[in-house]
Amino acid sequence: MDNGMENNNRSTKLLIGLAVIILVLVGRLFYVQIINESYKTDADNNSMAREMIYPPRGVIYDRNGKLLVGNKICYEILVTPKEVREFDTLALAEALDTTADFVRERMEYYHTYRSKIGWQTLTFLKMVPSETYLRFAEEQFLFPGFKGQVRSLREYPFNAGGNLLGYISEVSPEYLVDHPDYKAGDYYGRTGLEAAREADLRGSKGWHIYQRDSRGRQKNSYHDGDYDVEAVPGKDITTTIDAYLQQYGQQLMKGKKGSVVAIEPSTGEILAMVSSPGIDVDVLADFGRHYGTLSKDKNKPLYNRAVSASYPPGSVFKLVNGLIGLEDGVLEPWMQYPCYNGYVYTSSGRKLGCHTHRSPLNLEDAVMMSCNGYFCYVFKSILENPAYHSTEEAYVHWREMVMSFGFGRKLGSDFPSELSGNIPSADFYNRYYRKGHWRFPTIVSLSIGQGEILTTPLQIANLAAIMANRGYYYIPHVVKASEGVEIDPVYYQKQYTLVDTLQFPKVVKGMWKAVNALGEGGTANVAYVPGLDICGKTGTAQNPHGKDNSVFICFAPVDNPRIAVAAYIENAGFGASWACPIASLLVEKYLRGEISEGRRDMERRVMTTRLIH
Amino acid sequence: MQERSLDRGLRKTVDWRLIVVYLALILFGWMNIYAAVQSGEPSSIFDLGCNSGKQALWIAGALVLAALLLFVINPYFWDSISNSAYLVVLALLVLLVLVIFMSNNVKGSHSWFELGPVKFQPAELSKITTSLVLASVMSRPGFKMSNWKHFLLAALIVLIPMLVIVAESETGSALVYAGFIFVLYREGLSGWLLALFGMAVLLFVLTIKTHWWVSLIVIAVVSLLYFIHFLRRTSSLRLRRRVVRNGLAAAVASVALVFAADVIFHRVLKDYQRERIEVVLGMKEDLKGVGYNVHQSLIAIGSGGMFGKGYLKGTQTTFGFVPEQSTDFIFCTVGEEWGFVGTLGVIVLYGLLIFWIVRDAEKARNAFARIYGYCIASCLFMHLFINIGMTLGLMPVIGIPLPFFSYGGSSLWAFTAMLFIFIALDRQEKKYF
């Protein structure tokens, strides 16, 4: 019983404790809400007004400091419905360059929801140009409750890199759910560089707090601005893009479907990345209006083919197979194989065709003439290498070597929506043909970059850079480190392939001959520019939807290369017909600054021909 | 037949006062969540695109849950499963640990568990299981607080989930577990230990706010007063010896704590936690960083005055200047729009809820029901004190919800389950006795 008493006592003590704490809270509330005046505003409790200050978004420069994306000022007209007094609807509509109906409709809306809106300030009109705003500002005193707020819009002084730069738009309600640090009305980068570098470009918002007098007029800063927060401007970004080269690439690609990517081999910096058909920068500036038509366009101009489209690489892939053959010791540069219009790969006489050329050829000439038969022999020796117990084992090894060139996986560039392409796994063939039931003839088309292989234009441009560097690459990227903006150190690291660097010159010789050995049957003579020493490899990839795709990769000059280019043109026929001129013109323009006399006709032909309808 | 006549009806057995307060809190909370919606464009309170609409769904779910717990599930079921409780605890701990590794990061803490669109915090669930297990263990016949093995067991039941939650960097939720000390006190923990606990908190604050030697002087003075007071009152040698022994032990522990406080404050706590504490203790005037939130919260509450600005008429809270508007800082909306009258009303509701739970618990003849009642009263109290204390600048900014009031499904459901398990237990008491 004594225990019971004691417990009751304890219960009482705890309840007293509860009462004390509740009194402390209530006392504090009484102090904050009733006694202390510093938290009060004035009689009608509305004396504090906040003004959001939006930071200017970071601008984007090209590699030489040329402004690609700048900001221009525009205004938003804000309204605090509670403060609106009677005014002339027509005059406001005129001042703001809108219609009286619009104004009336908005005002009715505010009236309907007046209790919910309360003292909130809402956005009345967006994207008002400076000239219009200035006109409004003169008459602003006639419209109490309305005011302007500075926002910045994108401006594009130079027409280069539409798809690459990307666009910004106002945050959607769905976006806000996942990004609590954004508020309705904010802008964010949706695609391209704007999206990839959102964190740097964005900056952070600030605000001023004002006090108002009893008639709602702004007086002075609240607490001398102690509670104000400064807006922090976004950081400026320098891209690796060369604005003029990018623009030139876009001109060359006009009317064609596909993409061109140029990389500086010694750094992995992307000099130009063109996706065609693409979007011009004036579309970006007013994206909202164009979005509807662009998204319905059957040629998909919004889609960045350079990283988001994957195609069979075609004959440019022979370079990779040749290198792997050399590295595995199943191919020597002097080895010759016969080819009479193709390679017969089954006993029943099925043949993988080739064009007419002299026979037999050694490695150098096979690269120069892009002989299909030769590379079937090479791939056969890789897969039937006695060092491996089975085709599957040899294939797994081959695939690993191929992937070391950056194929079949994302390269890890700093650009959004990069695809990985596809180098089929052994498991894929095991499922498709049953384990042990596929051998070299089954997958013969891989010899020449056809079949299940898919690569992005960026990946084959990277192959060009690997050839240029004779065996390594830097991960291609579009942002340069600049003051306050760092890039991942991985972009400074050499990435070696699994093929020894000593093997590369043997293949590069063939690439040099393909362009420069005139009259010997090389496939890329079109790219020949005296003195530039361009090395290249053409490709013609089958496209199930119509004409073949035209492919060309090249780099120049042969020693200490400064540029590596890949051009991939859909449904354009032979590599030599379109991809080769386009890529070589780009190289010439970059290295020489202008196109030589003898090639002007070709330039004109490329620029004026439309291949898509 | 005999049985049935003893089985009294709903009206007499269910403590309807608790249910009325519960409903009042969730409905008023819901109204304020709607008021706190920050979007510029007005929408309906049921709009699923905003918090109030989702909360309507959570509330509907909570009511179903409440009905299930009250009418369908026999509350002693909880006692019986808690007897194989070690399994339950183990399972939950595994879950908690899993969370640390699996979930993505919400605001620097790792404690959200995601199953498709549903997110919940296992820490919320763990409050219920800890209460059940603690009540079950402590209500066993022969359990005595004075037996140090028993005390240790009870302490471990509380401390283990607490430590796991700290590991998840949800320090706020962990702090709630400190409230279980009131349960232990009610069940016989020495009042001295409770006092020492309070003393420890004071010393911690004193040490980081001033200097360790100030704390040492305080310890010396308090010890001296203690010895003078007790040694003069007792003449028995045995008792004197005990007084000296206990006093010295407490003094040594306090000195150790003073030095540990320094290490904990500067090494164990993370930067943002340290800053929050510094702001509350007034060591740092930080109007733009951490202190900004508290200052905005105080402006919102203070601007409400006596009667508030009126429902949906708040200016401070509807613009998103007060952070975590509908969750942790929901009390600001009450302060601004309903004034002192509103805030007082809310606090009185919570006070009554806790008071009635404690009284019902005291009346219970079954120890399990009593101890469980104290557990939930303590949890509610800690949440109330920490959350409202935070909005008033009395406590550091610790992200824990105001029970029944804040936006969020997992917290609402967890507190509903906690409360209704108790109401059901209480009902059983009244039904058969």
Describe this protein with a few key phrases.
heterodimer, A: about 625 residues, alpha+beta, six-stranded mixed sheet, five-stranded antiparallel sheet, 22 helices, 20 strands, about 35% helix, about 20% strand, elongated, B: about 425 residues, mainly alpha, two-stranded antiparallel ribbon, globular
Protein model, in words:
- The complex is a heterodimer of chains A (613) and B (433).
- Chain A is of the alpha+beta class.
- Chain A is built from 22 helices and 20 strands.
- In chain A, a hairpin with a 5-residue loop joins β2 (60-61) and β3 (67-79).
- Chain B has helices at residues 2-6, 10-13, 16-35, 51-72, 76-83, 85-102, 122-138, 148-167, 171-177, 180-186, 191-209, 212-233, 237-268, 271-280, 290-302, 330-363, 367-391, 409-432; strands at residues 113-115, 118-120.
- Chain B is built from 18 helices and 2 strands.
- Chain B starts with a helix and ends with a helix.
- Chains A and B meet through α1 and α4 of A and α10, α15, α16 and α17 of B.
Task: Describe the secondary-structure layout.
The complex is a heterodimer of chains A (613) and B (433).
Chain A: H1 2-35, E1 48-53, E2 60-61, E3 67-79, H2 89-95, H3 100-112, H4 114-117, E4 122-129, H5 130-139, E5 146-155, H6 162-165, E6 168-170, H7 173-178, E7 187-189, H8 192-196, H9 198-202, E8 206-212, E9 218-221, E10 237-239, H10 243-253, E11 258-264, E12 269-276, H11 281-285, H12 287-296, H13 305-308, H14 318-328, E13 342-344, E14 351-353, H15 363-369, H16 372-383, H17 391-403, H18 426-433, H19 457-469, E15 472-473, E16 479-480, E17 495-496, H20 504-516, E18 535-541, E19 549-556, E20 563-569, H21 579-592, H22 600-608
Parallel strand pairs in A: 2-10
Antiparallel strand pairs in A: 1-8, 2-3, 3-4, 3-5, 6-7, 8-9, 10-16, 11-12, 11-20, 13-14, 15-17, 18-19, 19-20
Helix pairs in contact in A: 2-3, 10-21, 14-16, 15-20
Chain B: H1 2-6, H2 10-13, H3 16-35, H4 51-72, H5 76-83, H6 85-102, E1 113-115, E2 118-120, H7 122-138, H8 148-167, H9 171-177, H10 180-186, H11 191-209, H12 212-233, H13 237-268, H14 271-280, H15 290-302, H16 330-363, H17 367-391, H18 409-432
Helix pairs in contact in B: 3-4, 3-16, 4-18, 5-7, 6-7, 6-8, 7-8, 7-17, 7-18, 8-9, 10-17, 11-12, 11-13, 12-13, 15-16, 16-17, 17-18
